[in-house]
Each structure stands twice: as C-alpha cells, then as structure tokens.
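As described in the Methods, two query proteins were run sequentially through the folding procedure within a single session, without resetting any intermediate state between them. The first query and its resulting structure tokens are shown here.
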Amino acid sequence: MILRRSQTTLRGYLDTALAWLDNTTLLGRSLRWYLTSWPLGLVFLLLALLLPVLVDLPTLTAAVSICIYAMLALGLNIVVGYAGLLDLGYVAFFVIGSYTVAVGTGGILQNAQDHAFNIPTYPFWLLLPLAALLAGIFGVLLGAPTLRLRGDYLAIVTLGFGEIVPIIFQNLPFFFGQFGMSALPPADINNIPLLGSITFSDPLNVTPFYYLALAALVIVVLAVYALRDSSLGRAWIAIREDETAAAASGVNLVRTKLLAFGLGATVGGIGGALNAAFVTTIAPSDFNFGISITILIMIVLGGIGSIPGVILGAAILRFFDVYLVSTVSAALQSNSTTSNLLAGHDINQAKLLIYGIVLLVMILLRPQGLIPNRRRSRELKGIGASVEGASAVGLLEREEAGLDVPVEDTLDETAYAGSGSDAQGGE
C-alpha cells in the first residue's frame, strides 16, 4: 500500500511537471518541444565539441566510452526498439568488430603448435568498414535461423549466440585464447590543412580519438534517423506491432527481419572496432553476457525506440560505470572510519544490483523511458486514432513538427484500447 501511494505521488509530480512544460510557451513553442526536439540536440552537440577543453583526462576517457556504447545501444535499438526482436546476444557483434581490428593491426596470429607467425597488417580506416561488414554478415547469419521464432524463444537463441562467440575466440589457438590480443590505434595523420597533425597513439591525449568516436556517433545517429523515417523503418514498426498483420499488408518478413539483424549488427561492429583501437588490448573475458544486458538497460532507461533517449541512457549508465564507480570505490577504500558502513566496500561488486534497482524503478514509474518515443508512449498508454477517423501517425507527425493538434482530432483512448472482451483480443 505504501509503495503504491509513493508510486502514485511520484507520477503525480511528474505529470504536473510535464503539464507545465507543455503549457508554457516560448516563441510560439512549448518548453517541452525545446527539451525534446532538435534544438536540444544541437546544444548537446556544441557542448560535446567543446568538451575536451572543459574536462580532465579521466572524464574525457569516459566520454569516449560513452560514445562507443551509445553506438552499441543505437544498434540494438534497431533490433529491439524498431523491429521488436528481443536480442540478448548483441555482445557477439561487439566481439567480432573488436577482433577484426586486433587481428588486422596486430599482424600476428598463433597456429595449433603454439608458434606465432606474422600476417599482413592493414590501416584502421580499412579495418573499420571491414569490421562493420563482417558483423553485419554474422548478424544476418544469426537472423536466418530465427525467422520463425518470437518472444522468449528468440531471446534464448540470441542469448546462446552471444555466449558462443566469445567462447570460440577463447578456445581457438589462432587468437591466443584467454590471453587475448593487442590492437593498435589509428595511425597518426600529418599535414592536415588548418589542423596540422592528429595523433592517436598518445595515451595522455585522447582528444583526437574522442572526436573520432563523436563523429562516428553523429553519423550513426543520422543513419538511424534516416532508417526510422524510411519505408523500411515503417515496416519494422509494423512487425513490432503485429507480425501477422504486417505480413498480410505486404511486408516481406524475411527481408525486413534480416535487415534489422544485419544493420543492428553492423553498428555493433563499428562500436567494437573503435573499442579495440581505444583500449588496445582485448580478451574474451572482456565480452560477457553482462554487456548485452547493460546495453539493453540503456535502451529501457532512455526509452525504447527513442534515439535521444537511448543516447541519454547510454550516457548515464556508462558514466556511472566508467567514472563514478571507480571514484566512489576509491573514496570508500580510503575511508577507514568505523562509523561509515560502506567503508572498505567495492561499489563495483554491487553494480548489477544498482542496475536492477534502476530498471525496476523505471518499469514501475516510467516504463516508456526518460525521453520516450511519442508513438511508443501512446502505445503504452493505449491511445490511438480518434473515433472520427483521424490518423494517429499524422497527429504524431504534427506534434513532432511543433504544430497544434486540432480539438476535433484529439485522440480517444477507447478507440485503440477497446473495452471489455475487445480489449483483450490483441497481443
């Protein structure tokens, strides 16, 4: 009873704040529009460009990791958020991208007799698209045998794939087993007009690699936006809502699902390639099931299907993981007072517990995420087209453009959710 009252109170405060943002206007637009649309994105992009001169080295290192994991979350969002296919083995494509760069830049492999031999080395700028291509191919290979699976069965198969791939790299002698491999950062670029030289190999200067990761993230965001608004994106959403109805409407389920797996895996391969070049040392133990779950939590926290929400969720969790956990743990380890119950404890051991609590709170209080996708938010609330036949998609497009919705076209909850036995007919 107390939990329910607290939940109701928090929701009331949240609804009041959102209503105030909706009713307060600036230059003809509501404040909520400025906080959820492209102007806010431009502000954050400007801050991101200025970040190297505003923060120290550990914070900038965390920012690089945030960019990489934001790309991974955007790739998984294609599969889970758009197509509605629950993929619990996304870490496999992260592994493939990382090992592609490690093998291509290390220039050394090991045969069955434990004798190392040299192989040709390739520049990072060639290995980056190669990693994306290989990850995309394996994404299609994963999707092919799962075309007839849905729900929990699909999750189990993808989970198995995510567990198998790191084990393969661990047991094949060519990749030095559990010891892992070393990767090289991108080669330095000299004599660039107006920029001079760009050095990627200096561990005390991560600014060039930060701008590289940020540029890759911006390209991925633009590509995902283009995919979302394309006919393929609408086909993904149709499959997510009702696969049978989508097939009856002419959507090619095989091609559409394979493209979702392949494109999502391609983004994962890009993230893996950047990760290997940044950390310079990878091992199979670095790629566990927890990474797939963490990326999925990023999507749930930010908002399934919402690009700004996914980036925000990745930024919050990754900054907590890379920066705050180590900082707080170091402070607690140095605190020897007996009055502090947390003194001497390692917060890193309770990280997954904290993630679970955050996920539980989000499910109870705000299942649509911190920055929800408008269409997804209306689905969770059971709101659809009005009785008069207004298009819910058309109204959403008007809202996203900052236009007012006519009173006669306001959405009727009962028109979508139904009532009585009809409400139970859909999935």
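Immediately afterward, the second query was submitted; its sequence and tokens are:
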Amino acid sequence: MSTTGTTQLEQARAGIVTAAMARVAEREAIAPERVRDEVAAGKLVIPANRLHLQAAGGVATLDPCGIGRAVTTKINANIGASPVSSCEETELLKLRCAVDSGADTVMDLSTGGDLDEIRRHLIAHATVPIGTVPIYSMITGKPVEELTHDDILDGIAAHARQGVDFVTIHAGILREHVPLAMRRKLGIVSRGGSLLAKWMAHHGRQNPMYEAFDDICDVLRQYDVTISLGDGLRPGCLADASDEAQFAELDAVGELGRRARELGVQVIIEGPGHVPLDQIEMNMKRQQRVCDGAPFYVLGPVVTDVFPGYDHIVCAIGAAAAAYHGASFLCYVTPPEHLGLPNPEDVKAGCVAFRIAAHAADVARGLPGARRWDDQMAEARAEMDWNRQFELAFDGETARRIRQRDMPADSDYCSMCGRDWCAVRISKELKSQPAEK
C-alpha cells in the first residue's frame, strides 16, 4: 500500500512493498521483499512518476520496471525532434517502434518543435518510463547565459507535472573540471555539459545545477521522479577515455547521489561514452565503488571511433561488456550516431542490437531464467520445429521472412545446407539409431 507524498525509496526504507515494487517482482520472477530491499539500499530504482502511474493524459498507464543489478539489464531508446526535423507523430511512431523492439524506457531529447506538446503526447501514450533532459526546454528561445535558479526549478517542475519518470541533471560537472576537459581532443561532447560549461565561463560561477541541487531534489521528490546524474564530461573519443576530467565528475556525482538519496530521491548514475574495450571493466567497477552500487546507465560504450554508420554494432559490443561487469542500464546507439537524427528504422536497429547485448550479459551473469529462453530455442532447433523457433525468436517475423526467401513455407530444412547436407538432420538420424553394443 502506497503512502501519498513519499517516494518508492522512502517507502522501501519504511519496510513497505508498494504496488510498483510488487509489479517489478512479478516481471522479474523474484520476491517482492528482495525488490524492496534493493530499492531501500539505493541499488535498484523504479522510475515511476506518481502522475504517470495514474495515467497522465488519460491514455496510457505506466507499467513499472526495475533497474539494478538484481534484475535483468534494461535498455533505453533516445528519440526526439531536432531544430531541422520536428513532427509529433513521427516521435510517437519512434516511441512505439522502440517499445515493440525491446526498449524498457524511452528518453525524449527533443530540441526542436513544440517541446511541451511533444513531451505531453509521448507521455500520454507511454506504458514505459519516459525520461527527459529539462535544460533543453529551459533555454528554448533564449541563450543559456540567461538561465536562472528559478528557471531551473520551474523547468524541472514542468516536466514532473507532465508525468516524466526520470530526468537527466548535469549537476556533477563543476567549474574546476572544465579546464581538465579542455586538454582533450574533443573537449566536452555532452550537450547539457557544454551548455553548463558555457554558463559557468560567462558568469564566473559554479554550476547552477550543483548550487540548486537540494532544491531540485525537493521538486523531484514531490512527484517521485528519479534523478539520472548526467555525465557532462563523458569522453567523446577513445583518446579522451578514463581521463582526469571524467573521473573528477564521477567523484562529484557520487557525492550528489548520496545527497539525493538522503533527500528521498531515487538515483541513477550516467557513464561513458567512448571507452576502449580493455578499460570497460575498470570503469564499471570504479563507478560501483564511488557511487555505492547505484544503477549505472551507460551510453554504449563506444569501443572504436572508425565505424560511422555501424555504431549500433560497435556500441552493442561495449554494452555487453559493460552489463557483464557492472552496468544495469544501457542507452542504445543507432546507426546514424555521429551522423544524423535516427528514423524509426534506425530506432529498431539500435533497440535490437542492445537487446542482444543485454540478454547476452544476463546469460553470462547467470540470472535466473535468462538461459532458459536459449535452451528452449536449442530444443526447437534439434527437433527442426521451425514454427516453434519463430515463436521463440525475439523477432520471429524477420526470422520467418529470411528463411522463406529461398524455401517453400512447408519445407523442414533451410537453404544453407539443403536437405541432404543438413548436419542437424544427420545428427537427429544418428540419435535415432540403436546404440552399438
């Protein structure tokens, strides 16, 4: 039973199993008390704005999900209009495509069009948690240098009142960190981070998000909005990975995460970024240590810089490693990363690539039930039961279409080997023969 005005974190600490916790437990096939205890410890979050749980907009009701190491790895899909491409219906199509393709959450990163209306439209149709970066709408129509304390609180409150479930706040990039980032090849590649660095340079003052942090948490607590502490200094190329600027910000967000939890707000920590494969394990373990096991939300990581157009594959490789070594939440990357705005087909490609990465990591971590799916597919293949294989496949429609390109629908073999060369068929025949004495 929920207590009005308190967050999932506060209720968990009070020993309460909320309806959202019970639903997460049901989805993950674990005990509700385990979910409660993980939430209470700050190691699992349930991004669920109270208004979204109550069907904000009167159309869709949120189906809560849990993010943390105790449960399956979750993936997020970024969508959003830009100043050169803006259409509410296109963004809604991307939302539906993302969810249908395995996204557990969706972030609206719109910087063009009517941002309030796009956000309202998406939340009204979203059964998954919706995230945003409020600074984008705070500076619509005016330069970032004019951003005030009241603008920050009013902007975040506006998102919370619409039903947004989690928000990225770049409060950990401090004034003293900016010179460290200027030593890099690519400097600051985060939009939010660069905007706040520009504000600090103009005013000669500390990050206004950092200075307003306790007030920000007060706003978020009212609606139970989860704070995602943004990585404004994430590396933008392999040469900048794991540098002094990145880890200085990580130390700052570790401190802010503790402050947010003390104020009753659930916390996610965002991380890199472009990271060579051999540095991923160290990055994941360092975050877990510095941030007290808070769920780690990583972009990629991008493990090589030279495959534009294929970055969804590049990043799925990094994502699988990150999820195995400590990340709980993977932000997908699409083929147009570094090139342009993704369309619905790109959204699907990114989601599928990251769903593969998440599942591979869950199997490797030995999560209960993760491997069962694969074993069921193996049984269907051994029996050459094609319909069962399509039922089990993540995207059975695509699997069926590929198989039937060259073969009649009722064939019991594929075009790779044909009937007589089929190793599975030969193995099945051998198994059926009497054992030699």
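The chain has 20 helices and ten strands. We note this only descriptively and draw no conclusion about the first query from it.
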